[in-house]
Protein 1
Amino acid sequence: MIIIDNLSKLSFYLLLPLSKSGICIYYHKSKLKLNENAGHLKPIVFNQKELSCINSLRSYDYGDHKVLEKYAKKYINERVIKYFKKEFKQVSNINEKLTLGFISSLALNNIGSMYIFAELILKGKKNEKLYIVHTNLYQYMCKSNGSYTNRKVINIYLPLDDMANISKSAWKLVETIRGKIIRKRKIKIATNKLSNAHKARPKSKTALVVHQSLSFTSLYKKSHYFSNEPSSPLHFANVELYSLRHIEAVQHNGLRREVITLEKKISLKDILSLISCLIFTLTRIRSIEELYGVIYISIMLFKYKSWINCFKDSDLSNLIYDYDILFPKSLSIALETLGIKTIALQERGASSFSYYYGVIVDTYLYGGSIYAQHGEENNAIQSRDSYNFGMWRVSLFFDNSLVSFNKISFLKETNQLPSDFDYKITILGFFLISDNNLPYTNSRALEDMIGLIREVSENFSNAAIILRMKTLSEEDAGYILERCKFIKNFFLCNDYENTSASYRLCKESDLIISVQTSLAEEALAYGKKVIFINNLYPISDMCKDTYPADFHFCIANDMDELNTLAKDCLINKDDINKKYNLLKGKVSGNIDLSKDNNIAKSLEKFLKPYRLDRVKNLR
């Protein structure tokens, strides 16, 4: 069996003769629109009816770190790191942090999806080999990318796309240099004006690196960082706003602020030093894996030095991450060298159970005691100190501006309203990716959800069954309605205009049935009863492989278990109430999230007053 990771125009014309000759080649991703003339070139799709569900592969087992740790040591080990250690000045645990950065860079989910698809197609053919064609050197050098399969895998590198990208980058560099020479005078004048304008206003000692915007689509706003007190260092007017890419100016409480785009800066001296270190290290490697490890660390070092140059003249004392696990690891390490304190709120509590998504930060504010317990034992979370803060989005349940339930819109086949029923049961789903090339988000997984909706609606005819997807297109909404048109107590929430509508739905629900999602965990912390769906095509045990045993009582293995647990929840059975109350305590923090503006007030306590410690001898 042959799978290519990304089918481009170049690889298409190379592989077309093979497919025309009768060799079947699957592709995982492609921007091409292929027709019947493509021969035996076929997309990976998880919605084929003949493919039966399988048990979870270890590539998706978030509780087992051993596979990733063993894999990473082939590339990033003490023997390789020791040649670079002196370059990362005043950074603690550099071995663990470089390993964490390496693991976070892996294409684990993409390769894992290919492995899972191969097992579905080749079920029963244990001796048949899997050939994976990688179209970029990085993914080829990392081979399995930390995923796991018992099948024999042959990895092949196809350099066409890399060669094309190198050519484009080289031409872009030439054009950039030529443009800078032509516009040198204009740039100098503009820079001076910008510099003077920047000096004209007071410099802030605290910065927030905004991830994309100050709202997460229309699902919720991220205003929790900002204090209502004008004198607070976290008042919107007093916080420096940065972004890793250009975003438009942002507004909060009627005040508009520009967002500064951070740009890495590198000097010729840094480049020469890096080349010297790289050449010295290359003569001492022992394997192809160590070669890539050296290349990876060199790239990390390049970025690190660039970030040092970006911030070395800053007088910032504190920097807050807007999204913990997506914050660049090279920037985190650079800020540690510069003595700028970093702070991050845990965005997804389940990241404590994963070794794939990591964070490097000075002060880490966990989402609950169980997340803190597992996070402190997890090498993927590198922090100097931590605190059991709580999941900040629980505060949205208490928001006075939360949209009222009767203003939320639904698509339905009945004249009745959800409030006309004895109970409200909300089902939380993912979203549908039309390519059908990933587990969980394919159309057959959606059919599994629809099957669950039908059975729950039949067994609980006195309850309004509300489906809330993370995102919902008009096409998907029409499909779901068509498949559920005879279900009289079914309501599809299509309201993505009212901010935080999901939180109002969960707040008003008597029971929540959910896939593995942070909203479900937040509902647990608020005090709601949640039943997790454990099987969704093509993966079984997806929640039991994610959550520790504390959650397992509320994970349904099949419909019989789900129905029994749902009945016990709705009648408030004592033993069930005790279990949920115990779990609520474990997923909660020490901060009272019901109080207005309490998140910003609590964050202030973790700020460093002023940056007095200047780091010397960075060169």
Note: The mean pLDDT is 87.
Protein 2
Amino acid sequence: MSAPADKNHAHHLNGDAPAPDPRPNQTSSFDKVRPGISPNLPERYIIKTSGDDRVLTCLEAPNLNVHIENGLSFSGSVAKKSPSGTIFLDGVAQCEPFMDHERKVYNLDHHEGCVRAFTLSTCEQALVMYMKGLDLQGREWNVFANEPDLDTLMAIWIILNHARIGSQDSTQRRILFALVRYEGVIDALGLELKELSALPPELMRKIQRVVDHLRSEELAIKKEGVWDKSDYLSYTVRTLHKIDQIFYKPSDFADYQGVEELARIDLTDQRICAVVEADMGIYEIEPHLNKLYSNRLGVVFLKKGAASYTVRQMDLFMPLTLDDVYDRLNFVDPAVRCRTLGNKWGGAADIGGSPRTSGTALTPLDLVQACRDAVRKPDWAKKAYRLAVTAALVGFITLIAHIVRLIWAPAQWLGKENLQLPWISPDFGFILALLIGLTISLMFVAYGRSWQYGWNLPIGKQWWLLLPAALAGGIIGGSWISKDLILSGDWMVLGAVGLVLSPLTLELLFRSLAHGLLAQDNRIQRCDSRWFLSWPIFGGAILYAAFALTFLYCCRLDMRPIALGDVAMTIVGALLLGISTGFARERSQSVWPAVLFHILAVTTQLLIIQLA
């Protein structure tokens, strides 16, 4: 492939006398492009890369993504079922041209399912759709092509420049229409029928030189035999810039600001969140954002440095405030790790910024995803589904541990009859299996985001207020120690296993694993937030109560006969202990206070039983 053309030294056309124009004293756009003269136009077309996906976009139309891939094609049935906001160009969709206005899916083509000689070319179809009022600004669009011939490139240029075409003067528009018509006739009928364009001979010669100029690099690459292996997107960027040099002059971009969109996402049907980068402040850039996005922009992040952002709520009537966004960002940002006493996302209700000390560790895509999560609060159906999934995982781990408890016989397995407590206790095998199971689960679900599962040192002091409630829950019957260890009378083993290992395992299971899973879709407290009962606290307490009633009831400390009152006391105690340790987990932003409270609750209950 030939070397890329210098962005400021593209080849130009010879300047000939202007074609007759109905308006006197007007200069044709073709005459502004002369040898050695390169208008200083901005580079508006960029290629974005996300993994293996590369798309072309225009900085002035960030909602339009152009995909060009050699050999790309879709069957007609697949094309017609494509997502809303899809445009197929020139043979990508293997079917007749169609317009699905309801689903916003279009196929601009003149190859299959039509009489080619009687059908407009792709670039003419694109121009007609623009002139008929197709809204290319109100949503995100994906444009697909499989070869950047001039017909396809003119269609792409029209789509990407739809906003500026409307502001061109009538002379420029007529010249654009002439070029599109001439290229359309050549592409559909062949060069021998170019007179059917009905253009005056002199204008036709000028446009032919424009076509030759725009196709010069394509012909050179094809002559080298590397067209199919060339970088279509890079070639498209260069050719689109050549077309800009024909129809625009530097003064057309006097108010142009190079605002680059880094990421975007739909917040609601009418509002989006975008991350942009520009050499301006957030208030200076607002008029340009309104021009780019109209009234669709709900929240914007302005990148100011490598890890520094300003966030602004553009629509103050959206069903959220930035406080909701800050909460979500502080939950997911590895630079904050839920440590919201200082270095955190924060600010006013309509404008704020990233952590000042460290900046953010989130990517632009992470930012818009967090913003959408803050807007789309889960309904009760989604909460119930997340609770059911979490219960299934906790139940599976518990079931495996219970099976281990039933078959636990280490003396027989190891051939050592002199094994002592705690090794021979089935309850020890149960706790050990629980610990192994939850550890494996945490390794998978908490990898790279351990702080979301409480693996932090505690902060604040308010969580100490929950200690009396936790102790009361344990005394009522919400905590558990193996009766085998109690009856053994070995206080060292009882302390190590019953007072430390068991509470540690249960809190990691319910206040780390279960709570962390439930918190992925639900807001939780911070050390500096208002007090409220979050869904992860309540859901974790429900799971712990079910666990206590199902698997631990037979091992209660007092060992009284089972009665309805005992069941009620176990449920109430487990709920009280679970809720209080859940509050401690969230207010401290750490699982370790919950572990401490559970240990103290078990110790208190054991002391009361011993004294009784």
Note: Residues 491-519 form the longest helix (29 residues).
Protein 3
Amino acid sequence: MSGSRLVAGSRVAIIGGGIAGAGLASSLLFNGRARGVSLDVRVYSHSEPNTVPPPVVLTPECRSRLAALGCRVPMDWRVHELRGVEVLSHGRRDLLPAPPGGLWVVDGWPNGPSGLEVVREALVTAATAQGARFISRHVDRVERHAPAPDAPEVVRNSGPLVVRAQGSGDRFHAVALATGAGGLLGDAFFPGFEPAPTVAAVQARLRHGSSRLTLAPLARLWIAPLPTVDGLFLLPGAHSVYALAFGPAVTPADLCQALMMAARDGLVDEGFELSALETTRLPFGPGRSLVAPGQLVVGPAALGHPLQLGLSETLATCSRAAVGLLDGGLEASALERRYVREGLSELMEDAAAGARSIAWLRRAGRRAPEAFLAARRKGSMCGVYSGGVLGLAAPTPLSLLAAARWAGLREVVSSWLRTAVEPVPTTVPTLEPDLYYVVDDDPDAREAMTQLLESTGATVVSFSDELALFCAVARRPPTAILLDVVLHWVDGLRLCEGLKQHPLTRNTRVVVMSGLNRPHVRQRALEAGAEAFLPKPVEPERLLQLLMGHGAPLPTVSPPVHVPEIPADAESGRYAS
């Protein structure tokens, strides 16, 4: 058996059983059969289940690639056909229409499998039908050990690469890494391996009380909604909305605050519930060292950028890796030439341009949506292998980078010349007297505070979940908000800061309450814009005088509104600001 090329009977291992792994298995077996080469392909598919399995957007190119790999793409996969992608930034918005053939949203979560699971299962079925074997084992490392000269013939013909998985070791002629971005094997795959860089991200699923979403069939990209968030994707699924926030320092609290702002601005329906949330990583450019003798990397581990919407790039790396392995040979120089330089060069340029454009889009501010339109009008600046951002044929990443850079420079220069004038909302709701909002995740504290205020004749709306607060304040401004510090998703101090930063909610009075009666907590509450800080248990007379003035008639109130104290040892765990 030849040591430098894949021949009939060669053994190939694929680490990762997701879209990239199953796609590479199908592509290898299909292309091998077309060349008269029957391969033994094993896919190590052990992985941790996603808490937030995402939907999938199938572009016309994605559907064609799936069909070429032997996957059926039935019409009933489609739960939505997007009209396009709306790009928003600093109050400006523009729509990029969907391409001919449409953008399909595939998703059944939570009543059925997510879009990612649907497409993966179709690829697994296609690969299995062609002879691939899927093994549920976690791979620890890949080693290179040439068989001993006196080893049995079956061992000498099994290849020089050893895949160590949960105590077992199997030999292969070639090994491909097809895991997602982040959490890779590193040097345990091969020495000097440099995968695609990554950026932090947080993803979530939003569910609504109504069985049918009223959200328009649009994907939305909000550029820089917060200082720590470079972008927020909102994608309607079958029974939920998928949200993804990304940025170098993004946290779950950032995503929650961005979602509250999105609800306030009408980007998601009111009354949503955060059903699932988890941190993840997204590819942020091309990898620098992707091949070794008999080894290569495909999918998000090889390249990508956060503005990708769809699977075209992942499936393209799979088909080009299969051709590179079968036609280029197993030597590192041959794989570098056939797979990286000839197969991936344009995709790598796109990944680098897409990642670099994000910083310029942030600098562009209100001109960011305009940059997408300008880049789209220029058409493609790349070759036949390049796709567009956001699942569209245009703009391409390179044309977007050029337009975003120009928009960013214009915005920087114009900011020097103009006086900063904050946009004023077209309609500002009238403050409703004697309306108070109470936000506390403790039901006893919430009930006690509600009874106290209602005893004065006030109207009280209580919130157990802070996610609905922004929307409620913007649409029905209260006289004041009583805000606890320790909440479920976002601490009350960040919530207060967010309320004070927007024209619709800036003038709302906020009183912060907390059992964390520490000087630094009090100081931070006042710096965040709170009118006052009240330690728990709250003294009723002090609270009522603060809210209603010294001349307000006070009801007969006995003991203080008692809220259970938070133990000192729990402070660091529950309050991290």
Note: DSSP finds 15 helices and 24 strands in the chain.
